[in-house]
């Protein structure tokens, strides 16, 4: 498990991360979300011991990263896919890392095959595309067969096939009981990948909950109702506390009431229902609403919202 406790980091007197406390549990993919400048990358660097906190602590399985005897076997990380000597081949880059942790040479070829770089293993990394570089970074993260994965924007540069591949890989790793902690700006991708989300803004936790719970928090979620007796049902729903809007086609849009309750009201009144469809906000909608006051800057429309 990854855990931060009242983690604080300042640069030039400005708190980039402030009193940040959360836990990342094993067996699920945890998405790490936040606007630009929210402190996501700094938090990951603090977890991995690349920066030192001004106060608080970050631990992996109860220990700071610097105290791990064999860090690559415990934690696999991808923070910067370009962190590789361009003159080295993919194979030699991974072999160097493997030797530093007394990992077997056979593991190098294994991870190259896992990430789809087996055919280009002897090519210099400097000639790799952005997507190939990302795959090499993932290979390095997997090298020690770690129980914890920390991935910062792993989808960057991947083509559609690559996006599906990394999604399935992360979910597979979590299903094996590993801890998977991943940041991304791609809300649609996180919506179908993450089981749990931690959202931060201005260095503080805004939300720490399951994906379904986060989507339910958006006040714009509603239920679409179609019935030949819209007027009567609309009155019943409104009297029971629902917010009813009638569309141009006569359909009802009901907020502040669950579909089960609407169905019960219709049944009790003998009203026929043709459609009863919950409409949830997208992760992007929920994220924008949640972080409205936490962005570093906003466009004109957003700032007036």
SSE layout:
Blueprint: E1 2-11, E2 14-24, E3 28-33, H1 40-47, E4 55-60, H2 71-74, E5 75-78, H3 90-100, H4 106-114, H5 130-142, E6 148-152, H6 160-175, E7 179-183, H7 187-193, E8 196-201, E9 204-210, H8 211-217, E10 222-226, H9 230-239, E11 243-246, E12 252-255, H10 259-268, E13 275-279, H11 283-290, H12 300-304
Parallel strand pairs: 3-7, 3-8, 5-6, 6-7
Antiparallel strand pairs: 1-2, 1-4, 8-9, 10-12, 10-13, 11-12
In short:
With 305 residues, the chain is of the alpha/beta class. The protein folds into two domains: 2-216, P-loop containing nucleotide triphosphate hydrolases (Rossmann fold); 222-279, 2-Layer Sandwich (Alpha-Beta Plaits), CATH 3.30.70. Helix content is 35%, strand content 26%.
Give a quick set of tags describing it.
305 residues; alpha/beta; Rossmann fold; Alpha-Beta Plaits; 2 domains; six-stranded mixed β-sheet; 13 strands
Write structural notes for this entry:
The chain has 12 helices and 13 strands. With 305 residues, it is an alpha/beta fold. The strands form 3 sheets. The chain has a 6-stranded mixed beta sheet, with helices on both faces. Strands 11-12-10-13 form a 4-stranded antiparallel beta sheet, with helices on one face. Strands 2-1-4 form a 3-stranded antiparallel beta sheet.
